[in-house]
Task: inverse folding
């Protein structure tokens, strides 16, 4: 059997003078094909190809005011800012303190939210503690983790509106903003102290004596 035919059989019948050169070229082509498929090689070639193209586009558009002011310049500033953030040096103790502060704030807010949800007495905002009908609201203090009573005022039972306080000198007077009904400690001879009413509200809450909805 012909030696040349055996060597060239996989690639077809080759001429004896050109058989080895074609084999060599096919081998080189296979190596290059595998080499060019590697991700790193693709990245490098992409940079080498796209960089001149990008430079050409920039050189062509940099004299156009709209593209420069509204597209190229903001993108350039954004890139500079990102590079600054990535390369900015921060001391380790700054990172530790910042993380501790963030963790503390999140924990306080989470605890405050849980306490607010568990306070079922928050619907108790109106009651007749003595003779008058009173209404009030609650305010939560995230530092002391306690509720306090605010906006404590008597209610006009005719209009079902919170009355306004018009106190002056030694006279304590409450007036309805709708019907102008008034109560005071001089003409009526009777007045209910806000301090006493607040104490009664607190007593009812602590001893679970308020109406449940």
Result:
């Amino acid at each position: 059997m012909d030696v040349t035919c055996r060597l060239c059989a996989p690639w077809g019948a080759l001429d004896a003078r050109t058989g080895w050169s074609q084999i060599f070229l096919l081998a080189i082509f296979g190596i290059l094909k595998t080499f060019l498929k590697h991700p790193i090689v693709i990245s490098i070639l992409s940079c080498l190809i796209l960089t001149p193209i990008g430079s050409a586009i920039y050189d062509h558009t940099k004299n156009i005011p709209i593209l420069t002011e509204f597209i190229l310049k903001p993108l350039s500033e954004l890139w500079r800012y990102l590079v600054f953030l990535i390369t900015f040096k921060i001391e380790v103790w700054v990172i530790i303190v910042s993380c501790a502060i963030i963790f503390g704030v999140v924990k306080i807010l989470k605890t405050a939210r849980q306490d607010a949800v568990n306070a079922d007495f928050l619907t108790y905002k109106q009651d007749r503690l003595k003779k008058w009908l009173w209404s009030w609201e609650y305010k939560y203090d995230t530092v002391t983790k306690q509720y306090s009573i605010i906006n404590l005022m008597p209610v006009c039972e005719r209009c079902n509106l919170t009355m306004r306080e018009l106190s002056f000198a030694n006279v304590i007077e409450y007036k309805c903003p709708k019907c102008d009904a008034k109560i005071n400690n001089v003409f009526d001879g009777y007045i209910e102290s806000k301090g006493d009413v607040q104490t009664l509200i607190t007593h009812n809450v602590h001893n679970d004596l308020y109406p449940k909805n």
